[in-house]
Specification:
By secondary structure, this protein is of the alpha+beta class. Helix content is 36%, strand content 26%. It has 13 helices and 20 strands. The strands form 4 sheets. The protein has an 8-stranded mixed beta sheet with strand order 12-11-10-4-3-13-20-19. A hairpin with a 4-residue loop joins strand 11 and strand 12. Helix 1 runs parallel beside helix 3 and helix 1 packs parallel to helix 8. The radius of gyration is 22 Å and the shape is globular. Belongs to the geranylgeranyl reductase family. ChlP subfamily. Keywords: Chlorophyll biosynthesis, NADP, Oxidoreductase, Photosynthesis. It catalyses: phytyl diphosphate + 3 NADP(+) = geranylgeranyl diphosphate + 3 NADPH + 3 H(+).
Length: 411
């Protein structure tokens, strides 16, 4: 049953129109909910075969919560190697047989979510969004595949068009700092892929990432080898990638680079995420976590939350107000604000020098730390520990920091 709203002239009610710009996990998840609710939904994407550069790790809770089929997951990682600047490695393993970190290719994941939205009735529009004319209704202008100028009207607009969001610029959502994630997809022969069957690696060190960490994440027949940095300097990124390949050594030596990709990562949420009847989700809203750089789950979750807020606010055929749609942001901050603050503190404390990185890896050898970390990641909750465990973790953290001279401000 389609949800209607009264026309401006008081005539026959018409269906509420929602336009979503960007068909990544955030945009597709929003479009699916809106289409399922009976809204006239448009999902605009400049290239339906495009794949966003991404490490591609998703938490276990996303698989069940978003009903993802097993075939879109390339690898089920149950072992993680944390490798310190000194190359000291700590191996972390999930002990429960049904737990894993999913590794996906974004072209596969995004395609599935986009097609599912279309199966619910969302209209896929392949075109490059160019401008938003504000009013009642909004007018979205875009160019189709042939370069022809087109437009469509919408009552509500959802910006899911990434960090460099044109929708965000249109509503003056505010600027935020960003990092660059750069990675190479390297195809390995079967005998070398066997090592990465259910294993991922995180490398810490100023040589491979001065601000975050570097990674080797397994996919179908290749590994994603990448780094994150606040500096967009291309020569610096090349040096970091070279250092990462050298530290990985024979494990990836001789592999064939099949793709090189990069993308920006917002460092914090935008100051304004709902303006009038325009909403931002995913990277466009700034929903990437510090420390881990994770954004896929949070993009999909924010798209779903934004759409659910629209459905609630439009009950009875009303055109939602900014105040009603703003409830989405308030819910988001209540549910995930603590997670973002904790991870921001973790990055500030442990990623500021190689000494602190050594301390971090040392701390990760503790089973209680591992369990607390994995529970928080896999199920997206800040899991409280018992008083004894919490005291033990606190003392171990302080001890690791002191032994590694981590309190020194120098690198």
């Amino acid at each position: 049953m389609r949800t209607s709203r009264a026309s401006c002239g008081g005539g026959k009610p018409v269906t509420l129109r929602v336009a979503v710009v960007g068909s990544g996990p955030g945009g597709s998840s929003a479009a699916e909910i809106c289409a399922k609710a009976g809204f006239e939904t448009y999902l605009i994407e400049k290239n339906l075969s495009n794949a966003k550069p991404c490490g591609g790790a998703i938490p276990l809770c996303m698989v069940s919560e978003f009903d993802l089929p097993g075939e879109i997951i390339d690898r089920r990682v149950r072992n993680m190697s944390m490798i310190a600047p000194s190359n000291h490695a700590v191996d972390i393993s999930l002990t429960k047989q049904d737990e894993y970190i999913g590794m996906c290719r974004r072209e596969v994941l995004d395609g599935f979510l986009r097609n599912r939205a279309a199966s619910q009735g969302a209209h896929l529009v392949e075109g490059t969004f160019t401008a938003l004319k504000r009013g009642t209704p909004y007018v979205l202008e875009y160019r189709d595949k042939e370069g022809n100028a087109r437009s469509l009207k919408a009552d509500i607009v959802i910006g899911a068009d990434g960090f460099h969001s044109k929708i965000a610029k249109t509503i003056d959502a505010g600027d935020v700092p960003y990092a660059i994630a750069f990675q190479e997809r390297i195809e390995l022969p079967p005998e070398k892929m066997a090592y990465y069957e259910d294993r991922a690696e995180m490398y810490l060190g100023f040589d491979v990432s001065p601000d975050f960490y570097a990674w080797i994440f397994p996919k179908s027949n290749h590994v994603a080898v990448g780094t994150g940095t606040m500096s967009p300097n291309k020569d610096g990124i090349r040096r970091m990638q070279k250092a990462l390949r050298e530290r990985a050594g024979d494990k990836i030596a001789g592999g064939k680079i099949i793709k090189i990709e990069a993308h920006p990562l917002p460092e914090r949420s935008r100051p304004r995420r709902v303006v009038d009847r325009v909403m931002l989700v995913g990277d466009a809203a700034g929903y990437v976590t510090k420390s881990s750089g994770e954004g896929i789950y949070f993009a999909a979750k924010s798209g779903r939350m934004a759409a659910q807020t629209i459905v609630e606010a439009a009950a009875g055929g009303k055109l939602p107000s900014e105040a009603q749609l703003g409830e989405y942001v308030r819910r988001w901050d209540r549910q995930y604000g603590l997670t973002y603050r904790v991870l921001s503190i973790l990055q500030d404390v442990f990623y500021r020098s190689d000494a602190t990185r050594e301390a971090f890896v040392e701390m990760c050898a503790d089973r209680d730390v591992q369990r607390l970390t994995f529970d928080s990641y896999l199920y997206k909750t800040v899991v409280p520990a018992g008083p004894f465990v919490q005291t033990k973790i606190t003392l171990k953290t302080l001890g690791s920091l002191l032994r590694g001279n981590a309190l020194s401000p120098t690198r």
